[in-house]
Amino acid sequence: MVTPAAAKTDIDLKLAGELAQQLRVDSVRSSTSAGSGHPTSSMSAADLLAVLVGRHLRYDWDEPASPANDHLIFSKGHASPLLYSVFKAVGVVSDDELMTGYRRFGSRLEGHPTPVLPWVDVATGSLGQGLPDAVGVALAGKYLDESPFRVWVLCGDSEMAEGSIWEALDKASHYKLSNLIAVVDVNRLGQRGPTELSWDLETYRRRASSFGARVFMIDGHDVAEIDRAMAQASQITGDQPTVILARTIKGRGFSEVEDREGWHGKPFPPEMAERAIIELGGQRDLIVRGPKPDQPPAAAPAGKAIAALKLPGYTVGDKVATRKAYGQALAALGARRDVVAMDGEVSNSTYADEFANKYPERYFEMYIAEQQLVAAAVGFSVRGYRPFASTFAAFLTRAYDFIRMAAISQASICLVGSHAGVEIGADGAFPVGGAKVLRASDADQVTLIGAGVTLHACLAAADQLKADGISARVIDVYTVKPIDTDTLTAAAAATGGRLVVAEDHHPEGGLGSAVVDALTGAGRADLTVRHLAVSELPGSGTSQELFDAARISAAHIAAAARSLAG
Amino acid sequence: MVTPAAAKTDIDLKLAGELAQQLRVDSVRSSTSAGSGHPTSSMSAADLLAVLVGRHLRYDWDEPASPANDHLIFSKGHASPLLYSVFKAVGVVSDDELMTGYRRFGSRLEGHPTPVLPWVDVATGSLGQGLPDAVGVALAGKYLDESPFRVWVLCGDSEMAEGSIWEALDKASHYKLSNLIAVVDVNRLGQRGPTELSWDLETYRRRASSFGARVFMIDGHDVAEIDRAMAQASQITGDQPTVILARTIKGRGFSEVEDREGWHGKPFPPEMAERAIIELGGQRDLIVRGPKPDQPPAAAPAGKAIAALKLPGYTVGDKVATRKAYGQALAALGARRDVVAMDGEVSNSTYADEFANKYPERYFEMYIAEQQLVAAAVGFSVRGYRPFASTFAAFLTRAYDFIRMAAISQASICLVGSHAGVEIGADGAFPVGGAKVLRASDADQVTLIGAGVTLHACLAAADQLKADGISARVIDVYTVKPIDTDTLTAAAAATGGRLVVAEDHHPEGGLGSAVVDALTGAGRADLTVRHLAVSELPGSGTSQELFDAARISAAHIAAAARSLAG
User: Across the A/B interface, how many CB contacts are shorter than 8 Å?
Assistant: First the structure.
């Protein structure tokens, strides 16, 4: 760690140019030392970052947790050499760590940035995600924290082809996020060749403008032009997000690779790196810092104060749809002022509208844009909120890759998919884990396992079996992960390894798999399992017709149990 | 089936207005009879469909398989009452089937349209997918079939918030798809209330225009305006796709629900339906047909003739990366002129570029837009091609919901995700199913199961175990679905139920689950399983470091086997 005492602050444009060269040199050095990484994608954006970090990003590098800091999100996460070179330049990562840690096992300087670093908000690398995440952060800033921080996002030009970028700009303008500034590094070259729009900045401009952004078009290597655009962009006025389109050159500064195909994601061999460093003016070790936030770090925003909770209660025997109970519980949780909710235009079905009606100021309609829905949740979590994002379960899959990346971010978010068979029960304070034994006796001959709607079928099957003199244990495995292995092993032991598992899901990767995985993983497993699941393409019909057709109804469960017990 | 002999053809605008009312009445009748469905979403688009089907859609309803037919895709699949009412109006579905089949179990008139109907190309219902699918159909028409058919798509306004819509328009203009016409039913109301842009057609216009479309703005209830726009749109001139923005009223024609919130996805109760039918002028049974295709149905396009194949061969001991072998095999398959390929801007990594270099006319670059990548494959399959769509496996998950819908379409497409551990082997003509026993003897004490990269670890582990005097069977389970149950049960029986499964994947829903599911599903299973899988968040490092950290390396496999055999 370099002491920041020596840091130059609020640097002039000449020094910004020097800093840009340093960022290029360090991007080359770090990727060559690692033997992998994306130096050319970093070099194109070095001038942008030098001006931003040296003159416009209001960030207290000694207090990365300060709620007053601006945010800096690399949507083009593969430019991690540039980001880490910035961290060196501001004095929070040493040159030694940069050179020996980058992309190495166990290091925090991973191939793509993750929040294991205190200056990184979200994991990026899968393109088209950083900007949608930033929309969530900016929503929190504008509507909940009411803090003047800005959210700066570095986007690549290739990722402008992702629909999620347009979902993000659409929501940014819908919610008037004047605190959001996307800087697009239009270096013309993707992984395998030219991007779709190459240097056609005018088309980018028309698109971003039609989606509601205020747009600047600049030469991304002219520090004065960059500075003017960023100075204007950083004034939070009006009600539009800002997009700065910067025409840049991939590999800028090293003539052997400038604007050449075939150099994406390739470090320079050592002797080539030497030539690059010479051409870039040699190694530098500037320590520079830009402006600090205008206001001192505030205490936790008042909006996050937590009030006492009174959760809804139900009487045994009440029949309440799970989604209705969700809406009621969510509305009750709203007493905690850190709870926010959002939905994909189906809040009257998921019953997120119970929350929306009670706390409209903390409800954000994301319309039919599920990638942005999940990304907004991630963004809210960055600011310390507890986001609940809901839609139909099938449509959550639209955001699969966003959920994957949220996991890499280790973001704390709650995703709720309704209209699916496997869902958390509505029994109090949302405990995850465990299972419930609903029927048990010493004479049990077989175990019936269900979840959600199939649980009711298991209970009905147990009644039918009882009439035949067969005693069945019934278990509600309401949490698939973590699964309650103890309850399952006890039941398997008590019923001679005879199990029927019924699920309204395809046989692969669901309840049945989880049960047999748990039992075989627990030790020697002596099992006879009848696994009832949906194996053909379902169509329209009544619930009962579809249950029968899928062979997961009470009658099928009872028949399977009889074949085991008999 | 109504005989089409009585059909009126090339109807005038007055009759088109009558037809529109019939479509409304039948949408009301069918949804009320089913007790579910979306009548109001159908009524808003009835004039659009009446003019289209009666005057512009060139379609031989007696020959739905004719390659000369225009295509009609309902991207707003929930307007199925309207689509099925069209099918009645052209005489291919009887009134009786419409009234007794819609949304009933076992009927082909499912809640959302699927290709079980010969006039439906793709399953829709999950919004934002029909237009991307249509881009694939239009690509096939323009570049491969070189046929003058047009692809008409009915979009909802809510789905314009999906990023995939903009991926589709972007590709439609990039590929100059003047044969693609999207008609957007801007009825202002989504499921739970107003859409994001309500009736702001000007913003829609600027967006669609900036994405390269020729745009018409019309009153969607003025048959003359509709007719003029469609007449112009159906001339395949220029190099732009067309977007017709139609301002409409949800529930149009029934004053009790027109433009009212709270009526999305709700059939009218019977007495209300009666009032609606009266206000709409009563039941009609017009049979109308529009123009037929200009040219007689052609034979299968020359482009699909199949040449002899010569697949690449490898010598035992050759080490060829699976993805390299994929590229080589794909290039060889290119001799079949029905094979087309597309990739998400990583063809130099997936080696789809081997095909692109050899058959550039049948390779389509989809850039970084994975939803459109999969949708294009679906669209090509509609025209009888064999599409291969590739990208990194992790990024295919971006298109999860498109893959799900492709399955509902039962589309025949090949999706190839590279840089994942589980992938089809490169041993000849791509057989799916089966497993390979690579090491076996009568003295085997334990079975080691791997796939992809972990297979090599299993083989190395078997060598280590041999040195300890432990004989291990090794199985390459290169196909997870369908899994080779016979080979697994034989191995389990031969090795006393002692299995080690190693996978470079999380423990849930992968190879290990598939193996234990297969064994427990096959009958009484007496198993002791050590399941080695990735259970923590991986980071950067070398392959070997990551294998060791995840505890799925040869040493870990050998240790697990020793603990079972000892």
Answer: 238
Average pLDDT value for chain B: 92
Confirm whether A370 is a catalytic residue. Answer: yes
Question: Which residues 409-448 of A have a C-beta within 8 angstroms of B?
Answer: 410
**Quick one: how many helices (H) and strands (E) in chain A?**
21, 16
DSSP A46: H
Residue A307 has pLDDT above 70, yes or no: no
CA angle A146, A152, A154 (to 5 degrees): 155
Residues 349-388 of B with CB under 8 A from A: 349, 353, 367-372
The answer to whether the bond into B301 is cis (omega within 30° of 0) is no
| Contacts by A351-356, CB closer than 8 A, 24 or more apart | A351/A323, A351/A324, A351/A326, A351/A327, A351/A418, A352/A326, A352/A327, A352/A388, A352/A390, A352/A416, A353/A327, A353/B192, A354/A327, A354/A328, A354/A330, A355/A327, A355/A330, A355/A331, A355/A388
Using a CB-CB distance cutoff of 8 angstroms, which residues of chain A are in contact with residue B517?
507-508, 512-513, 516, 531
Q: Do B368 and A162 touch (CB under 8 A)?
A: yes
Q: Is the peptide bond before B4 cis (omega within 30 degrees of 0)?
A: no
Whether residue A206 and residue B210 make contact (CB cut-off 8 A), yes or no, is yes
Considering only CB atoms, B531 lies closest to which of A106, A110, A521, namely A521
In the set B18, B225, B370, B423, the catalytic residue is: B370
Q: Tens digits of per-residue pLDDT, B360-406?
A: 999 999 999 999 999 999 999 999 999 999 999 989 999 999 999 99
pLDDT at residue B359 in the model: 97
CA distance A410 to A110: 15
Count CA atoms within 13 Å of residue B199 on its CB side.
10
Give the pLDDT band (50/70/90) at residue A243: very high
**φ/ψ of residue B244, rounded to 5:** -105, 115
Strand ordering across the sheet containing B525-532:
A436-439, A472-476, A446-450, A498-502, A525-532, B525-532, B498-502, B446-450, B472-476, B436-439
Catalytic residue among A370, A423, A508, A545: A370
Distance, in Å, from the CA atom of B382 to the CA atom of B394, rounded to the nearest integer, reads: 26
State yes or no: pLDDT of A463 exceeds 60. yes
In this prediction, residue B305 carries a pLDDT of: 61
Distance CA B549, CA B540 (A): 11
B45, with CB counted inside 10 A (0-12, 13-18, 19+), is buried
pLDDT at position B76, please? 98
pLDDT average, residue stretch B537-554: 86
Nearest CA distance, A260 vs chain B (angstrom): 15
ipTM of the complex: 0.89
Interface of B with A in 211-270 (CB under 8 A): 211
Contact A210 B196 (CB under 8 A): no
CB contact under 8 A, A162 and B167: yes
| HEC-encoded secondary structure of B314-369 | CCCCCCCCHHHHHHHHHHHHCCECCEEEEECCCHHHHCCHHHHHHCHHHEEECCCC
The per-residue pLDDT for A127 is 96
Residues 520-559 of A with CB under 8 A from B: 520-521, 523-529, 531, 537, 539-542, 545-546, 549
Nearest-Cα distance to chain B for A18, in Å, is 31
Q: Are strands B525-532 and A525-532 parallel, antiparallel or unpaired?
A: antiparallel
- Kindly tell me if the per-residue pLDDT of B557 is higher than 90: yes
Which tokens hold the place of B360? 């550039």
Q: Which residues of B touch A163 (CB under 8 A)?
A: 162-167, 369, 371-372
Q: Is the CB of residue B58 less than 8 Å from the CB of residue B7? A: no
Q: Which pLDDT score is estimated for B230?
A: 97
Nearest Cα neighbor of A364 from B196, B354, B271, B375 is B196
